[in-house]
DNA sequence: TTGTATGCGTTATCAA
DNA sequence: TTGATAACGCATACAA
């Protein structure tokens, strides 16, 4: 038990009576080592408690074995699941996750700074605040990046996205088929690109069905903000018959607010739809009608694309888009006749 | 834009007409550098796009600036919040989070292996599977570790815990005060130490109030498992008047199952309590009576203790325990007279 | 298959 | 305050 000094490959080499490079080769796969020395080295390594130093290895191989994952805490409620899946898939490919939390835009420079110095092999970005300028910096630094649910303008970075347009078109069609004419949209945070895209898609889909000038309120993706948005709307306006929400959590907030403070039954008096397909949408009290993102496929693609770009940096950036799955739920019903 | 070669301190030194060590000193605080050379170096560094290589720095300073955070995806629902807080506090102290997911016990050796090689400065462990043997390995490797909601036997590692005993005693007292006599416990996964501790505390607290041989069913902390546990119990037994759950998510599952499939009203027919204080307990349909863990304080303490141990490895391990806060909620009511 | 020698990009030490 | 030089612990080209 050497307390003060780490065991190095030299120590093992000396104890095993071989050269340092022999030790090094034993711990790399695909190098030619005789069975005899391999066993000898492995034995003494175990005895001395030797573990290769990944830091030194990084320095020489110029691969850190680490991928930076950037996320914002206030992003969608499904991010824990996404993070967990990404981590699992990356470690299967022998890459570790170095975590970065981006909550206010002014922290961005800090984070980018750290990413450069840490020599990560690649970046997966789920964060809300992320302008094209920042994305281009990755290109300058020659480090592959995959955007998650965020499209890069131009071809500067690869993206893995859920098809918000398709999902929202389905949701809107469903509402329209149920004869809804009076809508309210509760959008996510205005700085968020995903939120903005969902909002645009909602508005377009509604317009295609002939519903124009649909009012919009904004929340921050949280339950409370959903309640608040609906309450504020109701203070000065009459109730819509359908609410389209920027994510599931706000939708649940809208449902609760409508039921508790305005005596509205969902879905009889008010239809509500969300987006994401978080686990709580299956809870009995809500059974939210929503669109589920294919997290399994999306996270797998994100990792695959990133590793491909790491291996072949000159490959062109690619965009992969996945359709969401409509979850019928129980929060949409035919609009009551208003006449 | 050097595409193929990273800019090093030598490049900057040459361009600025100073020595490499001068460049190095400029990027370290507290070193003596004249204002003149500092400015010159900073300017050319910016011009060339130089960023110090953290890997090389790690190798020489023997500090990686990384803390390993180990967690299991099936652990408590509040882990995402914990992770986010830990990340925030650690980056404030200039440490990055290297994430490890420990889902099956046999992955443990792999993870430990990686932790040694990555030379992390310290470890924060939230994982369920974590025996004393593994904990001792950290001591052997001379790497500080703080356990989160998991007590180390002996004094091998520091711990930050929520006082489950106090919390559950409060919950049990509340139920007992409401005259409940027929209990069911829905515990968390049997391999989880936290779940086991909560279970033991529940049983002890009940025993102190004179309730013995309380039946136990097990879930895996998920909503579905809560529903299932309650449903299975009801198949062969009569309804309890109170259910004590190992976490909030299962409690919500129990509530929904009782309401939907057994026509029980909560809290009138059935009282239910949880543990954790996740955000969903505030949702209108549940208003769960539970105990909230002081995440802010616990995560702060975990980081503070860890950094202290990193600075002074000989400091003794410490244990800090925090009381939870009873959230009254709306899922406990007086027991109906059974006579 | 094995060993020697060199380099990765820093920080630390010491003399100037 | 500055610069030369030696680590740090490994991988790799090359010679044997």
UniProtKB/TrEMBL annotation, chains A, B:
Annotated keywords: DNA-binding, Repressor, Transcription, Transcription regulation
Could you tell me which residue ranges the HTH lacI-type domain spans? 7-61
Instruction: Give the matching SUPFAM superfamilies.
Output: lambda repressor-like DNA-binding domains, Periplasmic binding protein-like I
Superkingdom, natural source: Bacteria
In terms of Pfam families, this protein maps to: LacI, Peripla_BP_3
Coiled coil regions, renumbered to chain: none
Q: Write out the GO MF terms.
A: DNA-binding transcription factor activity; transcription cis-regulatory region binding
Q: Which PANTHER family match?
A: LACI-RELATED TRANSCRIPTIONAL REPRESSOR (PTHR30146), RIBOSE OPERON REPRESSOR (PTHR30146:SF95)
Q: What is this protein called?
A: LacI family transcriptional regulator
Give the source species.
Thalassotalea litorea
């Amino acid at each position: 038990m050497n307390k003060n000094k780490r065991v190095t490959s030299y120590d093992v080499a000396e104890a095993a009576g071989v050269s340092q490079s022999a030790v090094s080769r034993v711990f790399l796969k695909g190098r030619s080592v005789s069975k005899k020395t391999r066993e000898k080295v492995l034995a003494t390594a175990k005895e001395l408690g030797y573990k290769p130093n990944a830091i030194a290895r990084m320095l020489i191989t110029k691969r850190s074995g680490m991928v930076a994952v950037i996320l914002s805490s206030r992003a969608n409620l499904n991010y824990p699941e996404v993070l967990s899946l990404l981590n699992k898939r990356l470690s299967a490919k022998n890459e570790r996750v170095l975590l970065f939390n981006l909550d206010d835009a002014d922290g961005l420079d800090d984070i980018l700074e750290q990413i450069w110095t840490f020599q990560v092999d690649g970046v997966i970005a789920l964060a809300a605040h992320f302008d094209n300028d920042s994305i281009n910096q990755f290109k300058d630094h020659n480090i592959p990046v995959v955007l998650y649910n965020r499209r890069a303008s131009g071809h500067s970075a690869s993206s893995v996205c859920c098809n918000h347009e398709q999902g929202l078109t389905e949701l809107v069609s469903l509402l329209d088929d149920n004869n809804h004419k009076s809508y309210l949209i509760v959008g996510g945070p205005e700085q968020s690109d995903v939120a903005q895209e969902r909002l645009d898609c909602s508005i377009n889909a509604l317009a295609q069905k002939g519903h124009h000038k649909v009012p919009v309120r904004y929340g921050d993706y949280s339950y409370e903000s959903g309640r608040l948005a609906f309450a504020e709307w109701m203070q000065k306006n009459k109730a819509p018959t359908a609410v389209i929400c920027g994510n599931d959590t706000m939708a649940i907030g809208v449902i609760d607010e409508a039921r508790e403070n305005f005596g509205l039954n969902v879905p009889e008096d008010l239809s509500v739809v969300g987006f994401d397909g978080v686990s709580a949408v299956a809870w009995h009290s809500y059974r939210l009608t929503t669109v589920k993102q294919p997290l399994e496929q999306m996270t797998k693609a994100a990792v695959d694309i990133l590793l491909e770009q790491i291996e072949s940096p000159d490959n062109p950036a690619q965009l992969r888009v996945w359709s969401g799955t409509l979850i019928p739920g129980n929060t949409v019903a035919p609009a009551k006749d208003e006449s």
